[in-house]
Amino acid sequence: MGAGRTEGPPRSRVVAVLGGNAFVPPDGALTMAGQFHFAREALGHLRPLLQPGVELVLGHGNGPQVGHMLARVEQSLGEAYALPLEVCVAESEGELGYVLLQSLHNVLASLGVTRSVVSLLTQVRVDPGDPGFQRPQKPIGPVYDAARARELKARGFPVADDPGRGLRRVVPSPEPLEIIEADVIERLLSMGVIVIAAGGGGIPVLRQGDALRGVDAVVDKDLTAALLADVIGAELLVVLTGVPCAYLHFATPAQAPLRRLTPEQVRAHARDGHFPAGSMGPKMEAAARFASVPGRRAIICDPPSLPAALDMQAGTLVSCEAA
Predict the structure, then answer these.
(1) Domain containing residue 311
(2) Which of 41, 60, 104, 230 sits at 20 to 30 Å (Cα–Cα) from 149?
(3) Catalytic option among 21, 34, 192, 214
(4) Same-domain status, 209 and 306
(5) How confident is the model at residue 152 (pLDDT cuts 50, 70, 90)?
(6) Could you say which of 61, 67, 221, 315 is catalytic?
């Protein structure tokens, strides 16, 4: 658990994570201007978490960005050096870290809040024997038509249907086991710095003795956020996504919002198939993991709903006390 906070008024410690697909408009046209626009819009709703009394870590997804980077790599083979998948993750962490860093600076200035912000490349240790390496299932990148999907499969790139979206590349997604830079994040938070970290789930690495080595994979950002929140002693995990809350029977005539759940109820609904692995599944599992400790809460909502969700008037709240 977290330790080493500076003395002074009571502070709350929060980990919030933005979905990577939220940086992409409905037409799927990913642009730098669009990413800056989304960041400004989303961060404007985070006002309650940007005040000096909140020690905030901000994470983000990177699926679309990594997918586009891989497309560039494929198209430039023979003309530019190849980039392993974990390097693409690192580059996306740098790209979106810059977008969020500058956008946070501007949002804080507009609020009259003086706080330092830093974007930190973050490595996450995974197990080389994780079954995720044998069964690539994590969707990344753009949606492909059938012809392009067949072409990618023929070249040895796994492609699968991402429910509700279409055919996308899939890559290994092992469990996060350790946040390598957790002690640095801890120190920065204790100094009052807002930290952008563990973007895209962090850069996956293997530990070999005292050495680290990158590995081709993408770690789920929500599971990494839950692990980070646990390690640094956060009280609240906020998972920001594209819907106001979690639902039963999502996108059907029987759709029903879920407002307050215990971790046990989350997992029961997951077993019943309500939270697909490619969308709400990891978010709800991350919330259940973090909130399994009494006194900790997890919130799932979209950015506009966050202020009300913090007052338990919107979103989905997961906690041991929810019952």
Answers:
(1) 240-323
(2) 60
(3) 21
(4) no
(5) confident
(6) 221
Query: What confidence tens digit (pLDDT) does each residue in 113-130 have?
Result: 999 999 999 999 999 999
The pLDDT value given to residue 21: 67
pLDDT at position 27: 67
Catalytic residue among 19, 20, 141, 202: 20
Do 128 and 245 sit in the same domain of this protein? no
Active site residue 221: yes
How far apart are the C-alpha atoms of 15 and 122, rounded to whole Å?
14
61, 62, 138, 199: which is the annotated catalytic residue? 138
Residue 138 is a catalytic residue:
yes
Per-residue burial over 45-69, b = 16 or more CB atoms within 10 Å of its CB, e = otherwise: bbeebbeeebbbbbbbbbbbbbbbb
- Concerning whether 20 is annotated as a catalytic residue, the answer is yes
Number of domain units in the chain = 2
pLDDT digits (tens, 9 = 90+) for 1-47: 444 444 444 579 999 999 876 677 666 678 899 899 999 999 999 99
